[in-house]
Amino acid sequence: MFEIRECDDYEAAKKLILEYSEIKGAEACFVSLDKELSDLQGFYNDGALLLGYDDGNPIATIAVKKINDDRAEAKRLYIKPECRGNGYARPMLNAMLDKCRELHFKEVRFTTKPEVMSIGYALYRKMGFEELENDNGTVLMRMMLD
Description:
The chain is of the alpha+beta class. Helices cover 31% and strands 34% of the residues. β4 (71-79), α4 and β5 (107-112) form a beta-alpha-beta unit. The protein is globular and about 35 Å long.
């Protein structure tokens, strides 16, 4: 059974984020990784860090970082490679969007690299994220929230 909850195991979250940081081509997404990992709880203090569990095992992560009172950035959507293809990404994104609404954000942004994360990029588009800019293959997307 797949379950998503607020992070209660920061070591598991660190491990998942480190695995994600090793994806070839995704290096530019991790400019402040050391700072982030040294204090995950503080880094996402005004947002959220969510973990996805499959039969009690942490296999997915997504985070919400506050930009300002109205805007948040979604970060770190990652699903362990051996668990991909099971439909976990959409529930992770929906949980993140629900959390953004709960925190009263009006807009959520996402930065991605379609060349490296083509399946994620296609899902973001399908779920209603719009592309704002493309800077040498790094795409900034956003969704306005109700």
